[in-house]
Write a sequence for this structure.
């Protein structure tokens, strides 16, 4: 799953070397619009809706995976 | 470059007449938006007027005419419908950002004495019960399992459309009445509620048309709850009879404005930079980086001689990328000069302006016919301006009535009938305003969001390891205004005795992480620094910033 998430992040931001501990704002220096575009890409890829308010609690790549697990979002 | 004649504009003194003024537009498209799949939806002027008049009638039926009513909705058609319904009937619309944390949402709505709150389906479950306990009636728009929906509350009956509109025309609001309570980040820890009048909002929207004439299709990327988004980004466009494209979901803004194919885009600097990046990256990805760099270098040499013109091949690339877009009206924060300049090489003219919530909000803007690059433009008709030690002071009928229930803050903000903006600047010989800095302490992010450092400091005030803290903006990019939220902490020497700086920092970071989890992304503390001593104080023991 990490690879899939990394690929989505790469396709939107051009940022590589993503690990579970990567901080989206501090390490990848994403702006709020980059983050919005990223969520949009996740919504399209997994055919789901992610409320903007939920995004506040996502700081690390590991948070994305945890959020997806909790919401039952899988790559199927 | 001297100012030229103003464009023709309606001359509304209040929003009741403005709504009546939309009637002749009939079946012309008023508002257009896109769903997740990119499917377009539109409402006509006739529908907007009917829905607003039905909402006003519903307020009267429920004994809420003239009351304060809060709007906590995303950027939707419903937002505009409810806004016109409240204000055309002489009520006060309390404009709330739905992204605020729940506690602040409740305190904003209840604190502004709203008797009714129209909430989005996402926000309603989070705050409904608390608002009801505060005596606020809650209506929900946009789905969900809520008891009272916008449709059921409005209960529009087509047979009464005519009658509803006549009832509004018979009782127009007074121009001096308060129409809007909008929130600004003041220097206090809570956002300040600003009372704007019917006249202030209506005349500011009309004045905006006289400066920059809306084209037939205008897209706004701005939030409607913000006065810049409301007055300049929506009312001004609708009063001119143009078709307004709105962004229903900020996540899809970059897609939606291309789908709408607008000639004018209303934006903040971050959006302008995003478009610029999209244009340049698109060409670099096709292997044109060297040619692009060469073209922009030539363009900038010509610009130095006042000969800059859009470059044909870049204009073609622009048309492929963002369609007809020819003008961006940009405000809310400072835009990097290089971006504004280079956008013109692609055939996109960026017109920068200046405004503040307390001024309804537009104060000055560049015009297509008369502009000075990097200035904030010419003064809007109806405003007088003077400087006090470089601080910009304004006088005019569009100024706020004051801060709601805060006469002390209101008195502090005025010097007689002059409003003290807290911004510094100067005027060029041609009458163009230049902003040089901010007297206030606000941390202004590139997306136009403002953060009061006192608010961030208040979150950290109770952390036992901290003796003193100041929050500030720290540079985080290429331009000086590209900032992130940082805090500098003087740790409590007793509480941290025997600990290394690394340990102190690590423990502070844990507190900061907990605080960040409760804050919207843009307010999160992104940098923690330690101070080895106490901060310098003023005579009244306030920390010097």
């Amino acid at each position: 799953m990490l690879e899939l998430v990394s690929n989505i992040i790469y396709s939107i931001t051009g940022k590589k070397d993503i690990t579970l501990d990567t901080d989206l704002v501090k390490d990848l220096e994403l702006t709020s619009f980059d983050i919005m575009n990223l969520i949009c890409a996740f919504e399209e890829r997994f055919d789901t809706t992610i409320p903007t308010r939920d995004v506040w609690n996502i700081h690390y790549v590991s948070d994305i995976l945890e959020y997806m697990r909790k919401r039952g979002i899988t790559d199927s | 470059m001297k100012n030229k004649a103003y464009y023709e504009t309606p001359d509304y003194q209040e929003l009741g007449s403005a709504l009546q003024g939309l009637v002749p537009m009939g079946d012309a498209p008023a508002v257009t938006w896109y769903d997740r799949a990119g499917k377009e939806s539109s409402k006509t002027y006739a529908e907007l007027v009917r829905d607003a008049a039905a909402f006003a009638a519903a307020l009267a039926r429920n004994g809420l005419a003239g009351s304060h009513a809060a709007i906590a909705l995303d950027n939707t058609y419903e937002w505009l419908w409810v806004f016109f319904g409240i204000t055309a009937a002489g009520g006060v619309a309390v404009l709330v950002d739905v992204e605020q944390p729940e506690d602040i949402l409740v305190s904003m709505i209840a604190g502004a004495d709203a008797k009714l709150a129209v909430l989005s389906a996402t926000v309603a479950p989070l705050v409904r019960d608390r608002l009801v306990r505060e005596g606020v009636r809650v209506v929900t728009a946009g789905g969900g399992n809520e008891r009272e929906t916008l449709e059921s509350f409005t209960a529009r009956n087509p047979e009464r459309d005519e009658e509803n509109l006549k009832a509004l025309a018979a009782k127009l609001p007074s121009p001096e009445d308060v129409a809007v309570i909008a929130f600004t980040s003041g220097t206090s820890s809570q956002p300040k509620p600003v009372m704007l009048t019917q006249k202030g909002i209506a005349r500011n929207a009309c004045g905006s048309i006289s400066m920059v004439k809306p084209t037939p299709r205008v897209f706004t990327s701005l939030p409607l709850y913000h006065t810049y988004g409301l007055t300049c980004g929506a009312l001004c466009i609708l009063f001119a009879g143009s078709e307004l494209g709105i962004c229903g979901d900020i996540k899809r803004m970059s897609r939606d404005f291309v789908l709408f194919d607008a000639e004018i885009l209303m934006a903040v600097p971050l959006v302008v930079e995003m478009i610029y990046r999209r244009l340049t990256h698109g060409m670099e990805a096709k292997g044109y980086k060297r040619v692009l760099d060469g073209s922009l270098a030539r363009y900038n040499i010509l610009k130095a001689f006042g000969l800059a013109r859009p470059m044909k091949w870049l204009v073609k690339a622009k048309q492929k990328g963002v369609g007809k877009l020819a003008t961006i009206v940009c405000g809310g924060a400072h835009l990097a000069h290089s971006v504004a300049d280079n956008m013109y090489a692609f055939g996109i003219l960026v017109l920068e302006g200046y405004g503040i919530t307390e001024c309804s909000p537009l104060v000055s803007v560049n015009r297509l016919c008369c502009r000075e690059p990097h200035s904030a433009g010419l003064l809007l008709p109806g405003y007088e301006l003077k400087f006090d030690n470089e601080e910009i002071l304004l006088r005019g009928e569009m100024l706020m009535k004051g801060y709601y229930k805060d006469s002390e803050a209101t008195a502090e903000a005025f010097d007689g009938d002059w409003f003290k903006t807290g911004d510094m600047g100067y005027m060029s010989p041609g009458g163009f305003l230049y902003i040089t800095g901010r007297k206030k302490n606000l941390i202004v992010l590139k997306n136009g969001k403002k953060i009061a450092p006192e608010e961030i400091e208040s979150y950290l005030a109770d952390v036992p390891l901290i003796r003193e803290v100041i929050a500030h903006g720290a540079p985080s990019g290429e331009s000086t205004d590209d900032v992130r939220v940082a805090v500098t902490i003087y740790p409590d020497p007793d509480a941290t005795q025997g600990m290394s700086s690394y340990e102190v920092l690590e423990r502070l970071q844990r507190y900061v992480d907990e605080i960040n989890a409760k804050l919207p992304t843009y307010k999160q503390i992104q940098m923690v620094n330690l101070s080895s001593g106490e901060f310098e104080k003023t005579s009244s023991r306030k920390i010097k910033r």
